[in-house]
Amino acid sequence: MPENKNLSSEIKKQLPKELVEFLRLAGELAQKRGQKLYLVGGVVRDLLLGRENFDLDLVVEGDAIALACEMAEARQCQLVTHQRFGTAKLAWDGGSADLATARSETYAKACALPTVNPSTVRDDLLRRDFTINAMAVALTPDLYGQLLDLYGGLSDLQGKLVRVLHGKSFIDDATRIWRAIRYEQRLNFHLEPETLELVKRDVDYLKEVSGDRIRHELELILKEEFPEKALCRADELGVLSKLHPKLKADDWLSAKYEQARRWSSPDNPSVGLYLALLVYRMGSKDVEEFISYLRLKKASGRILLDAIDLKANLGQLASPQVTSAQVYTWLSGCAIEAVVANIIAAGMPSAVPRLTEFVEKLRYIRPALNGEDLKKLGVAQGPEIKEMLHRLLEARLDGKAATRRDEEALVLNWLAGKGA
Ligand code: CTP
Question: SS3 for 80?
Answer without folding.
Answer: strand
